[in-house]
Amino acid sequence: MTTHAPQAAHTVTLPGTLDEAVAALAAMPAAVPVAGGTDLMAAVNSGLLRPAALVGLGRISEIRGWRYLDGHALLGAGLTHARMGRPDFAALIPALAAAARAAGPPQIRNAGTLGGNIVTAAPTGDALPVLAALEATVIIAGPEGSRREIPVSHLLAGVDLLRPGELVGFVRVPLLHAPQTFLKATGRTGPGRATASVALVLDPARRGVRCAVGAVAPMPLRPLEAERWVASLIDWDGDRGHLDPQVTTAFGEYVAAACIPDPLPPQDGSEPVPLPPAAIHLRRTVAALARRALGRALA
Fold first, then answer.
1. Homologous superfamily of the 180-298 domain (CATH)
2. Number of other CB atoms surrounding residue 256 within 10 Å
3. Residue 151, pLDDT score
4. Do domains 11-56 and 66-174 have the same CATH topology?
5. N or C: which end of the chain has fewer CB within 10 A?
6. Which residue ranges make up each domain of the chain?
7. pLDDT higher than 70, residue 171
């Protein structure tokens, strides 16, 4: 598995179904599930993780595709970024496809999975702000065939964590049939980890705008007041694209200020400490991404 840690795992189990994988985890509490391994093997190679056993998920065909279910798409946790980036998936959930195509170089996109992005919960995970903006939910498989469903945001925030022996099996995403965008900024040209990312979706049925900002905090942030404000200015019954450019600019600044706020004033009444230059630059980046995302969605 790796030249740096030849004794990292003593047992490797390769179940064929989701329930078999759950049973394997229940039988080996110290085992670690692995799908694409893009984050897990990086941790092993760096010496941060020495799993006693691995439960490989690559042979579980039921979590490697998707299907329609009551106006939603039920996505298998084993979907790779490369698969989600294809045109047929992009027609289904454009913002998630865009995030998948931006996830990194081909070797990462071919191996990395949707479920891994969620469970690893890295702040720079490209799929996470999209799932937050879409208000997706995860279906968790547990012992004895049990299933429970929770919002993705609850899992990322630690409100409801995976219990021993549980696995993320599927992700339920509403099909809005409306414009949605994903944009990200990196510290270099070409694929790379996001310094900031923005996912934005329009929901004409509810006359709403949903936006999530990634990479600037431990989990995606939803600027709810900015969402409500700009939604109130959109002509939902007429030309949605006819919005004053000053509004989109103000929306970007509103989002950025909500996600990267000014420091609180000192309690002793002295002058407030200004934002450091790096935070000011990050705020400007988020503002630009949010402005462009809204403009593209409305166009």
1. CO dehydrogenase flavoprotein, C-terminal domain (3.30.390.50)
2. 26
3. 97
4. no
5. C
6. 11-56, 66-174, 180-298
7. yes
